[in-house]
């Protein structure tokens, strides 16, 4: 039995086309944050918590934290950089 069957609820999964939520000049949002702000969605998942987003939506208490590290290749040194 699924949770939806247990609680006798139905739901629709909406594709946000990979847009999580960015604020515009007039403080309206696109993506999942915009859908929550405009009440076209009741719940969303897999969001990064930011201070700007916390001003317009309510987050639940985080049950898991992940630390992400970004890496990039070392820059190549030109012959002129070696002179310094």
TrEMBL record:
SUPFAM superfamilies: Periplasmic binding protein-like II. GO terms for molecular function: ligand-gated monoatomic ion channel activity. It is a multi-pass membrane protein. Gene3D superfamilies: Periplasmic binding protein-like II. Residues 2-70 form the Ionotropic glutamate receptor L-glutamate and glycine-binding domain. Pfam families: Lig_chan-Glu_bd (PF10613). It comes from the Eukaryota. This is Ionotropic glutamate receptor L-glutamate and glycine-binding domain-containing protein. The lineage of its organism: Eukaryota, Metazoa, Ecdysozoa, Arthropoda, Chelicerata.
